[in-house]
Specification:
- Helix content is 22%, strand content 32%.
- The chain folds into 2 domains: 50 residues; 165 residues, Glucose Permease (Domain IIA) (Distorted Sandwich).
- By secondary structure, it is α+β, with helices and mostly antiparallel strands.
- The two termini are 37 Å apart.
- The strands form 3 sheets. The protein has an 8-stranded antiparallel sheet with strand order 9-5-6-7-11-3-2-12, with no helix packed on it.
Length: 237
């Protein structure tokens, strides 16, 4: 299955391959072995490579996914750390950063069920996606979901040195379920997921994860102590 965002690029790649193959055949005196090698290479090759990049396999979320935090992207976890997030989650958080190579599936999936409370786009630089500063300085989307428990989870599509096109199709007020598709980043890129630091983490640096399938953590109700310490900041940003 091809991601719908990839239909036009895949068609364009096949058309380009057809044109190149036709031009090769028109060159006078072209050796037969070149025709047998280059024409099969360009005719389907560009289209097949592009189709492979935009592949969108069917997946099912694990049981109990409404209470889980799932990976929003395929790739390798390159960083897990605690930091402050003052705008949406508001407080001490875990940040898990996932690097997507050009060989990974690039369709992104919602990490937790709830209501979309925040959507924004931030232009920026195009550092390599595994650079520590890419999380704050690179072009990115920021999407925040509020779980029925009241917990807030933020996830970011971050462009890398090759990825120059971030695509997402959610809006504030949308109701979403963990594991459903929401967007795509073209070519090598990065995905950050941010959630409260008092929630458990079920991952470690170096793990390979799959969007909508791999479990990164679990959503727990806000305790009375957390509610008191965060009083006045649980509302909309």
């Amino acid at each position: 299955m091809i991601a719908r965002e990839g239909m036009v690029p895949v068609a364009a790649a096949f058309a380009t391959g057809l044109v190149i193959a036709g031009l090769i055949l028109m060159i006078p005196g072209m050796p037969r072995w070149v025709e047998f090698v280059l024409v099969p290479l360009f005719l389907p090759g560009l289209g097949l490579m592009t189709a492979y990049f935009f592949r969108d396999p069917e997946r099912s979320a694990p049981p109990g996914s409404d209470l889980l935090i799932l990976s929003p992207a395929d790739g390798k976890i390159v960083e897990i750390l605690q930091e402050e997030e003052p705008r949406f989650v508001k407080g001490r958080v875990w940040r898990i950063s996932i690097f997507l190579s050009v060989l990974d599936v690039h369709v992104n999936r919602v990490p937790a069920s709830g209501i979309i409370r925040h959507v924004s786009y931030k232009p920026g630089t195009f550092r390599v996606a595994w650079h520590p500063q890419a999380s704050t300085s690179n072009e990115q989307s920021q999407i925040g979901v509020e779980h029925p428990s009241g917990r807030r989870i933020l996830f970011k599509q971050i462009a890398g040195s090759l990825a120059r096109r971030i695509l997402y199709r959610v809006s504030e007020g949308d109701t979403v379920k963990a594991g459903e598709r929401f967007g795509l980043i073209r070519f090598g890129s990065r995905m950050d997921i941010i959630f409260p630091a008092d929630l458990p983490v079920n991952a470690k640096t170096g793990d390979r994860v799959r969007a909508g399938v791999s479990i990164l953590g679990a959503v727990q109700p806000i305790s009375s102590e957390s509610a008191e310490s965060n009083e006045g900041i649980i509302g909309n940003p």
